[in-house]
Amino acid sequence: MIYYKTEAEIDIIKEGADILGRAHGLIAKAIKPGIKTIELDKIAFDFITESGGKPSFKGYNGFPGTLCISVNDQVVHGFPSNYELKEGDIISVDCGVFWKGFHSDSAYTYPVGKVSEEVSSLLKATKQSLYLGIENAIEGNRIGDISFAIQSYVEGFGYGVVRELVGHGVGKKLHEKPEVPNYGKRGNGPKLVSGMVIAIEPMINLGKKSIVQEDDGWTIRTSDRKPSAHFEHTVLIRKEKAEILTTFKYIEEVENSKN
Ligand code: MG
Ligand code: MG
Fold first, then answer.
1. Measured in angstroms, how far is the CA atom of residue 16 from the centroid of ligand 2?
2. Quick one: which of 195, 200, 203, 204 has its CA closest to 234?
3. Is residue 80 included in any domain, yes or no?
């Protein structure tokens, strides 16, 4: 069943999402060659818990981290580890915050120092596909309209759209109905209604769409070992225009100060 949120519940999700956005900003600041991904996890854990929130992922089906950290050919669900970031890596950081009974969920893929032109284009297109999906997340449309917008845009670049993992409803549970695939047909799937809160999260591969799971039982990587990007916002369906509840503004402040 799909849960529709009241305006009071939306306000709570926005409060949690602000903590989440600030945690992402701290991570953006800390990412540089030489830092271990486990150190990023600690930054996020400390900030979220000191803010009075709870990391949504920690303990979720036994997941060990506050962050899912997926480097280069890892798509999603990587563990924070002693791996030291190096110049030219890309790192997907996915985080959730549980605040006053509700979750928010967002992800961002960062370049570490300078990355190749090819990889930089993948990041740009994946982020853009997220916003194209969001443009279609309005009342009266269907989930397939979001899916189609993402798929048709990124496939135009020859990228692969991961099929096995999808976006989802967000609320009292981290993963609620409906599923939000990043591929599909216009006019297909559940109808979008005001009050639905969904996470839209394109996972886009530079090469082929196929993935494999590592032996740790969690980490997903591309089967051709080419890099993959992942961006995610939690959004609210409204009549004319979706409202983005999570925010990249703290990340973008850091990015702009680096340029
Ligand atoms: Mg996420
Ligand atoms: Mg998600």
1. 15
2. 200
3. yes
- Domain harbouring 106, CATH code: 3.90.230.10
Give the separation between CA 84 and CA 86, rounded to whole angstroms.
6
Task: Please indicate, yes or no, if residue 122 is contained in any of the structural domains.
Answer: yes
Dihedral angle of Cα 112, 32, 248, 153, to the nearest 10 degrees: 10
Host domain of residue 80: 7-258
- How close is the Cα of 105 to the center of ligand 1, in Å? 5
Q: Is residue 13 domain-resident? A: yes
Q: How far is the CA of 231 from the centre of ligand 2 (A)?
A: 10
Q: Does the global pTM surpass 0.70?
A: yes
**What is the whole-number distance in angstroms between the Cα of residue 207 and the centre of ligand 1?**
22
H/E segment holding residue 105: strand 102-111
Contact 97, 53 (CB under 8 A): yes
Q: Which amino acid is at 233?
A: H
Write out pLDDT tens, residues 7-52. Answer: 999 999 999 999 999 999 999 999 999 999 999 999 999 999 999 9
Instruction: Give the pLDDT confidence of 124-161 residue by residue, as tens digits.
Output: 999 999 999 999 999 999 999 999 999 999 999 999 99
